[in-house]
Specification:
The chain has 201 residues and is an alpha/beta fold. Helices cover 49% and strands 11% of the residues.
């Protein structure tokens, strides 16, 4: 049985070090690395790794959202791995599909992640539409584009839900950590130790 790792970040500026360190500590013999947004269809390193995997191998990832483009893609990948006799291990999610409990936890966790994303979309977009109907631009962030306002609102929801700054940065594909702090501040969230700068978002 071979332990094969897969690490991915969404932008060139982000680092793979944390994921690679965890995969190496777990004992991965080979680690495929990719810097590409999760929404992008073309992921050559992922495709190459999937072709290389054999029955009895373990595919090891740092976190579930590093593997699939979305919930449906993730479920499809896991189904294909199960058919080929390949197990999936997600280190930070404590998921190991070689066990019945691991398979159950994976499906519950993935469903909850998708549900959270749906809630963010459902809560954010109607609120902006309602604000525009009242003659407002929507939100508390004048001067920002509509896309930036949505990211600010989503960053606030993720932060209040317990997500870390790095996780928010990866989930919303924000290049700069400082931009995450600025979005949170504009949403009324003050974070100790952060100082406002004059750099543009």
């Amino acid at each position: 049985m071979a332990k094969i790792g897969y690490a991915r970040v969404s932008t060139i500026d982000q680092k793979l070090d944390r994921q690679i360190d965890a995969l190496e500590k777990y004992g991965c013999e080979q680690i495929f690395q990719e810097k590409v947004t999760g929404r992008k269809t073309e992921r050559p390193q992922l495709d190459l790794m999937l072709k290389m995997l054999r029955k009895g191998d373990q595919l090891v990832i740092y976190k579930l959202n590093r593997l699939g483009r979305n919930f449906n893609h993730l479920i499809k990948l896991v189904g294909e791995l199960e058919e080929r006799g390949i197990d999936l291990v997600s280190l930070t999610d404590a998921i190991d599909t070689s066990t019945s409990m691991g398979r159950f936890i994976f499906r519950v966790f993935a469903s909850l992640s998708e549900l959270q994303a749906d809630w963010i979309r459902e809560d954010t977009y109607p609120g902006l539409a309602s604000a525009r109907a009242r003659g407002k631009n929507g939100g508390r962030t004048p001067g920002l584009t509509e896309k930036a306002k949505k990211k600010a609102a989503n960053a606030s929801r993720l932060y209040k839900g317990g997500s870390s700054i790095p996780d928010i940065q990866e989930a919303l594909e924000i290049r700069s950590t400082a931009t995450v702090y600025k979005y949170l501040r504009l949403e009324g969230i003050e974070i100790s130790g952060w100082k406002q700068t004059t750099s543009k978002m």
